[in-house]
C-alpha cells in the first residue's frame, strides 16, 4: 500500500523546515540508530548525512556505547525533556543536548535530539562603553 500524497508532502515540508534550522536535529530509533539528521548536523560533525544515517548516535560523540548520562536512558518511560552537555569531537563545540522520546502504547519508537551550541559568554571591557 502506497503512502498518501499528503503524508509525503508533509514529510518533505518538515524536512525542508528542519534543514533551515541552525541547531542540530537528530532523530534516532529506540536502539540509538540514527534515521534522520538535518543539514546543521552534517555541517557540525563534518560528515555527509549519508555516512551518518544508520550509525548509533553515541558514535558521533566518540563513544562505543551509549553515553553514560544518556538522556534517553534517564527519560525511559517518561515523556519529559532533559538536557545534557555534549562536546562535538574534533571541534570542541559544546552543545546543550535535549532529547524528547516518542512513545506509542508504552513502547519507545523514536527520539528527537536537539543540540544547541552553547554560545561563549561575551566579556566586555568596561573601557569599551
Verbal overview:
- This protein is an alpha+beta fold and 129 residues long.
- It has a single domain (22-119), classed as Beta-Lactamase (2-Layer Sandwich).
- It has 4 helices and 5 strands.
- The protein has a 5-stranded antiparallel β-sheet with strand order 2-1-5-4-3.
- A hairpin with a 2-residue loop joins strand 4 and strand 5.
- The longest helix has 16 residues, at 5-20.
- It is globular, with a radius of gyration of 17 Å.
- The termini are far apart.
Helix content: 10-25%
Count of helical segments? 4
Could you tell me how far the N terminus lies from the C terminus, measured between alpha carbons in angstroms? 66 Å
What is the CATH homologous superfamily assignment? PAS domain
H and E order: HEEHHHEEE
Question: What's the overall average pLDDT, rounded?
Answer: 82
Poorly predicted segments: none
The biggest sheet amounts to: 5 strands, antiparallel
Which band does the percent of strand residues land in? 25-35%
Please tell me how large the radius of gyration is: 17 Å
C-alpha geometry:
globular
How many domains, as an integer? 1
In CATH, what is the class?
Alpha Beta
Kindly report the CATH topology. Beta-Lactamase
